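Model the whole thing, not chain by chain.
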Amino acid sequence: MYRIRLHGRGGQGIKTASRILGTALFRSGFEVQDAPRYGAERRGAPIFAYVRADDKVICERGLIHQPNLVVVADETLFDLPAANVLEGLDGRAVLLINSERSAQDWCRQLQLPGQVTVLDGAAVVREAGRVPAGALCVGAAARLLGVVSRRALLQAVAEELAGHDAAAIQTSQQAVSQAYELFAGEAGLVQRLQSGAKKSVTTPPKWVELDCEALPRAAPTITMAATSALVKTGLWRTRRPRIDRALCSRCGLCRTLCPEGGIDLDGEGYPVIDYRYCKGCLLCAAQCPRRAIAVADERTVSPPQPKEGEP
Amino acid sequence: MSESGPSSHSHLAPGTPLCAGCGGLQALQQLYRVLGDKTVVVNAAGCMTLLSIYPFTPFAGSWLYTAMACAAAGAQGVRDALDIQLAKGRISSAEDLATVVLTGDGSAYGMGLSATSAALDRGLDFLYLCYDNEGYGNTGHQYSSATPRAAHTATSRVSGYAGSKKDLFAIWAAHRPSYVATAIAAEPQDLARKVKKAAALRGPRLLLVLAPCPTGWGFDPALTVKVGQLAVETGIWPLKEYVDGRAVHTKIPRQRTPLAEYLRLQGRFAHLFSPQPDEQRLAELQQAVEDYWQQVTE
Ligand SMILES: Cc1ncc(C[n+]2csc(CCOP(=O)(O)OP(=O)(O)O)c2C)c(N)n1
Ligand code: SF4
Ligand code: SF4
Ligand code: SF4
Ligand SMILES: [Mg+2]
């Protein structure tokens, strides 16, 4: 059986990617399951989807804990322990990363027993046009499996994108096909594992006893105010708004409009963005009447982990 | 801002899991600055429920979860409990809290309407905040009875929603409540004035806020405010209030921007523009806006 997990962020087309791969495998004669994880399909938030394929009926259900292929469409996910990207990667599994960095580089950083391979999605996009990262990765993943023909793959793209305009479908097909081509040398790298249920490797949670209220009122109660400030949503950001004080007129509009409450005013009335929380929606930059907010690529301005209290 | 939370109790803390550029969260930020922490927010299932996932909450005041159909009934319980505490002298009137319902359109226009109508009959003293993202956002944007005609949703994929957006403003006004207003976060001054007005009144009050939703409507999060402004300028989202038995518009866009400019920005209407513009349906949608403003006198 093939057990494939796809990781990315909401908005990168991970759900569609899993459907394309599922349909392509189905068209290639496999029994298939594909599903996104329900609940957190929010733009920018970590999301994963999974695909199982086998030549007989699949009786396995639920999350994939022991994948033979893990696809990571967004390399910043490695910094997020909650994304659980590396779960269950053993010596036989293949890890495919969408990244401009080399596979050797990643091997050194991650110190994994299995095989790491890299798709330079940015380069494909430069040639073929803008296509969601998820779809690009599917092109590469299909080739790594070695059992999906280009024809089946492109048909799956058309089928899953039905309803989009013809030009968008064509661009996607071109990009997916290019990614597929790039991996010709690694076709079939992913080994099929024995089907049949494996022993579950889920570790039982470490229970923590919490003080609770008397039974009649024992619903979980948060008694501390505004605890969400402990969650640093700044990690979602891929682009960073930057205020140029020389241009700013201190009108305060950006502060009023920021959905996150992530902009405060300093002693002189200038707005200050709290990068611990700014999700990078960039509506402040779009609305500033003085065009005082510029936009930079997050990777060029900071290490992935924002520092505490960073201006 | 310290690790233990903000020093001020009059705004919503950051760190919520809602989408970047969420127009509903944007409105709630502005509303909470006026309402503050002396509130009990009764929240029916929807995107905003994700604000308070144990042990995290952005609220400085209280928050309570209810099922989709029963936020207004939950508010009745909260109001009654506070009134009993007041009557028994267990809390002073200075410690009293305002009862605020927070739901999406799925609840407000549909599943929760019956309980809301009953609360209106009883003259319940509460403020209802509906953030209207025109669909069941939290479950993947299926259509609701607030979905506009022709919009693509997860359950109206082929040629868009065949129904028309329900007029919740009129339904509320027909109950003769203390206050009803429409608003949008892209017009912060209009919104702030209406919240202040609503907060100062007693009895049933509704603030119905259009909430541009980048995820469900299909546009770049940087455009949330632009889409909101166009909703007002094209006249498809009229800003108005009902008070003392009269409905009055707070902004009348005399020179209305063509509706197509609003629709074109959103993926959910893309099928109206490509492969070819669907002139007939676009004209019908524009006509519905014209018909609305035709009957507006004040
Ligand atoms: C009775 C009931 N049916 C279905 C659901 C599943 N559900 C949870 S949130 C939601 C969508 C609610 O839509 P809306 O009120 O518009 O809020 P939004 O998600 O758009 O913020 C649904 C259908 C539920 N919780 N209860
Ligand atoms: S909107 Fe622009 S000009 Fe106004 S305070 Fe913000 S940065 Fe300054
Ligand atoms: S990009 Fe601007 S508006 Fe968006 S979260 Fe960051 S500071 Fe707020
Ligand atoms: S789906 Fe829409 S309403 Fe819900 S959190 Fe995302 S942007 Fe906001
Ligand atoms: Mg909704």
